[in-house]
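[Q] Does anyone have a clean structure-token version of this?
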Amino acid sequence: MDNSAYVSITRQMGLLSEMQTIAQNVANANTVGYRREGLVFSEFVKATGNDSVSMAQAKARFIDSSQGVLDRTGSTLDFAIEGDGFFRIETANGERLTRAGNFALNPDGEIVTPDGQRVLSADGAAIVIPDGEGAVNVSSDGELSVNGNVIAQLGIAAVDPKTLRREGDNLFSATQGTQPAENARVAQGFLEQSNVNSVTAISRMIEVQRAYELGQGMLEREHDRVTRLIQTLGRQS
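[A] Here you go.
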């Protein structure tokens, strides 16, 4: 296999990874609080004897931190963050982060995610709503109160998007830690929708698919050329 084929294969691998990433984004276009993921192509040079070959790779990923649209739901335990920041969630694997604020109460009166994971306060504790004492109100700075009595402060963490690692259940882990979010605002009775633009994503998917097909055609033609060359040499020997 000559160098051009190796270059094409690395390009094909990158395009396939991008296609999978786009497909994941499109599938989550209606997921509450979903953050679009992107792929970064880079170039690396491989030494080949006295020469070198420029190849492409697509291994670096990033999380798009742009704001999603806020939809009014009117539900008391639906929260949306305006600006940077993530809700802090307790999981079996440690603290995780999410932008999805569609919460509920468990039988113990704790605010939890749809999967039953506890939402944490600014102090890292579970948030318990007193039973039968009235409706929950949340101020723009994340302070929760019932009948005017403050019960907790929502835990909202700020994090460098480059250090986020996506996990399951619409959660993220912060590979380099977090700090309290200072400029985030909380909107009660709203949910932030996915920041995926379906039209843009599908358009890009078509572009990537066409580029992949062109690359595949080139590899097939190169394979046929090498096969014919081997057959010709075999007949001459």
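[Q] Thanks! Anything notable?
[A] Residues 70-192 form one domain.
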